[in-house]
Amino acid sequence: MLGQDVPLAIESQATNIAILGAGAVGQLICHQLSSAGLAVGLIARDSSVSNLEATDWQDLVFSPLSPSDAVTDSVSYRVPLLSADKAHLQQVQLLIVCVKAYQVIDAIGPLLNKLSPQCHILLLHNGMGPHLALAPMLNGRGLSLGTTSQGILRQSCWQVKQTGQGLTQLGHFTGPALPQTLRDNLLYAIPNSEWVEAIIPCLWQKLAVNAAINPLTALHQCPNGALAQAEFSDTIASILDELVDVAAHDGIELDRHFLEERVYRVIELTAANFSSMHQDVANYRLTEIDQINGYICDRANAHSLSAATNAKMVSAIKQLSAITLPR
Ligand SMILES: NC(=O)c1ccc[n+]([C@@H]2O[C@H](COP(=O)([O-])OP(=O)(O)OC[C@H]3O[C@@H](n4cnc5c(N)ncnc54)[C@H](OP(=O)(O)O)[C@@H]3O)[C@@H](O)[C@H]2O)c1
Questions:
Q1: Helix extents (H) in 154-198
Q2: Quick one: which of 17, 86, 210, 279 could link to 114 by a disulfide (CB 3.0–4.6 Å)?
Q3: Domain Ketopantoate reductase C-terminal: where (predicted)?
C-alpha cells in the first residue's frame, strides 16, 4: 500500500507517538507527523538526566526541499519534549527510534522497563543488526523495521532542512503487529511511504546500496559519482556477490542483477553527493560500518562463510577512523 490520500481522524491528542533521537531523521519524521496532526513528542539525548518538567515544549524549524531556498519556506512548529520517566512514557503507543544504528541498544535499553507492555517499537536507521539484539529484550512488545531514502540535514540543534525526497518502507518484524490506525496514520503522514509485507528483503536491498557506496566513497574521499569509474567495479561486484550469498544463507533470496543495477542507478542519481560515511569520516564522527559491511561479515561468520571484501572494507574504515577520530 503506497501512502494515503484521505486524512484519517486522529483519535486522541494525548502524545501517543514518541520519537527517540532528535537528530536529522528524528526531526524530519517529527515534522511530518506533527504536520499531519498526529500527537507526537521527542525524546532527546538528555531527557533522562535533565530537569525537564513532565512536558516541556520545544520550538523547531523545518525547511522543505525547495528550489528557491527562500527563508520564508521554513516552517516553525512546536512539539513536546518528553522526559524519560515512567509515568510519562506509559502513554506512548508507538516509539520510533531514529538514532544511528550503533546507538540503538544504548538508547532504547533504559526505556524498555518504563514503556507500556503494549508499546510498539519501530526502528528507522541505516544498516542492520540492532533488530536481532533488540528482539529478545522486547518482553512481548511488537517490533517493526523501516528504511527511508529521504535526505535531511541538521542545520542547528532544532533546525533541519530536507535535502532529498525518497521512498520510506516500513514493515513488521516480530511480536504483535502495529495497530492498524497507527500504521495508517504513519503512511498518511510520511510522503511516499509504503507498508511492505516482507521488510527484511527491503533492508538487505538498502544494505547493498550502502555497503557498495559508503565505504568506498569514505576511503577514496570522493563523491558517489566517482564510483562509476571502472577501477571500482570489481570491488563493488565482490561486495554484492558476498552479500547475496550471505543473505541466501539467511533465507533471503536477492536478485544479484537487480541489486547491481540499483547500486549504479544510485551512483548516477546521487553523483554529486557525499555519502553519510564519507561525511562521518570527514567530520571525525563514528561511522555505521559495523552495521553495514560489518553486518554482512557477522552473518557470514554465523554461516561459516567468507566475506573477505566486506571484511576488508570494515578494517580499512576502522583504520581510517582510528586516525581521524579524536581520542
Ligand atoms: N540524515 C539523513 O539524510 C538520513 C537519511 C536516511 C537514513 N539515515 C539514517 O538514519 C539514522 C539516523 O541518522 P541521523 O542523520 O538522523 O543521525 P543524527 O542526526 O546523528 O541523529 C541521531 C540523534 O539521536 C540522538 N541520540 C543518540 N543516542 C541517544 C540516546 N541515548 N537518547 C536520546 N537521543 C540519542 C543523537 O544525539 P547526539 O547527537 O547527542 O548523539 C542525535 O540527535 C542513521 O542510521 C542514518 O544512517 C539518515
A1: 180-189
A2: 86
A3: 200-320
